[in-house]
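Customer escalation, tier 2.

The customer says the design service returned an amino acid string that "doesn't look like it belongs to this structure." They asked us to rerun it and document both sides in this ticket. The original structure tokens are below, unchanged.
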């Protein structure tokens, strides 16, 4: 089954999280409509545009509006900031009023200080039973984890059972993407082991993933064309899973809709794709990638099928 968003095909009512409330952040790439249907709460990360004294809640700007603004302001580049511990404290206390436990799933600590704020907020919160979970990834990989947690809570799973499933998903999910330029990652100080200068001088498009060992960016390969980078990313996904493994893939892009369609077609040609989506990279992540990003998150269907 294929859809632009699996979540939007779920019933709009009756999906309330039961004994565990789920909170994540907007690096998980949920739209407002998806958040409401899943019943998850979102801690917002913020965008700081140069010359603007106000911060922008990254959930309040559409991808196209953001990417057009990003291109128009070059060579200036915005920055991002994490939610404060005070915001987390308030959110936890509000969620705890009905007595449920709270599972807080966030962007990799290796890429953001969001989890540090969440931990401090949990310590400050009164009468809130909070479990903090490091997704060790972002975007589509974090999305899979938060989606699974919400569906499991809806099904009445206990906290430890949900957490165990998330650990399995975290171990098996892969997020890989290619960038047209490393300019944005370099500006944000998030390139880790990726070499920005080499890319700009040689016009190389790096293929990057989040290393499961430390939750930081790492370079897998380099390509000179977008078409070649897409093929290499599909090769990488194919190499990770046993032959004929049934997969759920989420193709991610900034402003490369046709390339995203082409990538999905190649994935379906080469792999056993049971479910697929194409989604836009959220603006809060787009600050660090620019509009020329394309990638995929992949997960064995066996880790989601009993929740659907």
């Amino acid at each position: 089954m294929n859809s632009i968003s699996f979540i939007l095909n779920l019933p709009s009512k009756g999906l309330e999280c039961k004994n565990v409330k789920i909170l994540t952040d907007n690096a998980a790439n949920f739209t407002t409509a998806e958040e409401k249907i899943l019943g998850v709460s979102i801690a917002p990360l913020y965008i700081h545009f140069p010359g603007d004294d106000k911060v922008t809640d990254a959930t309040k700007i559409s991808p196209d509006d953001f990417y057009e603004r990003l291109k128009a302001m070059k060579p200036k580049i915005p920055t991002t900031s994490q939610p404060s511990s005070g915001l987390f404290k308030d959110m936890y206390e509000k969620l705890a009023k009905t007595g449920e436990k709270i599972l807080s799933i966030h962007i990799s600590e290796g890429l953001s200080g969001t989890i540090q704020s969440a931990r401090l907020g949990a310590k400050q919160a009164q009468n809130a039973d909070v479990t903090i979970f490091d997704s060790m990834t972002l975007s589509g990989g974090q999305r899979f984890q938060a989606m699974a947690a919400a569906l499991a809570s809806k099904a009445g799973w206990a906290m430890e059972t949900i957490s165990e499933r998330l650990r399995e998903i975290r171990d098996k999910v892969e997020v890989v993407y290619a960038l047209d330029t490393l300019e944005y990652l370099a500006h944000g100080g998030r390139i880790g082991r990726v070499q920005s200068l080499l890319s700009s001088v040689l016009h190389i498009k790096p293929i990057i993933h989040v290393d499961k060992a430390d939750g930081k960016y790492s370079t897998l390969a380099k390509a000179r064309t977008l078409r070649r980078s897409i093929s290499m990313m599909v090769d990488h996904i194919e190499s990770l899973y046993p032959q004929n493994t049934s997969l759920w893939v989420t193709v991610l892009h900034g402003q490369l809709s046709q390339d995203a369609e082409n990538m999905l077609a190649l994935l379906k040609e080469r792999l056993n794709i049971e479910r697929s989506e194409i989604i836009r990279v959220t603006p809060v992540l787009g600050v660090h990638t620019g509009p020329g990003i394309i990638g995929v998150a992949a997960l064995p269907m066996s880790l989601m099928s009993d929740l659907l």
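Tier 2 assessment: The sequence is consistent with the input. The mean pLDDT is 90. The chain has two domains: 7-171, 172-307. Sent an explanation to the customer and offered a walkthrough call.
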